[in-house]
């Protein structure tokens, strides 16, 4: 039984990586204790590289994704392009039956001012470093 479960998980991971390899700009937010701004800054980087970013999360992590999207929007960096919600079956080995989890995917695009705002923020950071050194 354990071997079969491991094999199923391995197949699932393989299938996931094939499906996701096309999405280089997807951030899957899990409920690990990474700080909120880790995701905010990662999303900014992805938008710089790909012009848009897809944030996705399951269950309890949905609140984090919504907060990240709101921070980026409120700072004038991102616009919502698409929001998709769905329910996915997650295999729960402890219960032996699939559990349904809510899923959200939010596609954000750069605003017109994105590059200007990012440049200004980078400049501020440089000035701060100069002051610390003197």
UniProtKB/TrEMBL annotation:
Organism domain of life: Eukaryota
GO CC entries: nucleus
GO MF annotation list: RNA binding
A matching Pfam family: Alba
InterPro entries: Alba-like_dom_sf (IPR036882), DNA/RNA-bd_Alba-like (IPR002775), UCP030333_Alba (IPR014560)
Classification via Gene3D superfamilies: Alba-like domain
DNA/RNA-binding protein Alba-like domain residues: 25-86
Residues passing through the membrane, by range: none
UniProt cross-references to PANTHER family, sorted A to Z: ALBA DNA_RNA-BINDING PROTEIN, DNA/RNA-BINDING PROTEIN ALBA 3
Record-given protein name: DNA/RNA-binding protein Alba-like domain-containing protein
Organism (species): Opuntia streptacantha (Prickly pear cactus)
């Amino acid at each position: 039984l354990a071997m079969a479960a491991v094999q199923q998980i391995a197949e699932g991971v393989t299938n996931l990586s094939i499906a996701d390899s096309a999405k280089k700009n997807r951030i899957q937010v899990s409920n690990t204790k990474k700080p909120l701004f880790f995701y905010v800054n990662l999303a900014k980087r992805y938008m710089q590289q790909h012009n848009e970013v897809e944030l996705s999360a399951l269950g309890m992590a949905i609140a984090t994704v919504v907060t990240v999207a709101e921070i980026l929007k409120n700072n004038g960096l991102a616009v919502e392009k698409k929001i998709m919600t769905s329910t996915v079956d997650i295999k729960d080995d402890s219960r032996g039956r699939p559990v349904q989890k809510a899923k959200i995917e939010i596609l954000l695009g750069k605003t017109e001012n994105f590059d200007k705002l990012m440049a200004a923020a980078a400049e501020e950071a440089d000035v701060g470093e100069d002051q610390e050194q003197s």
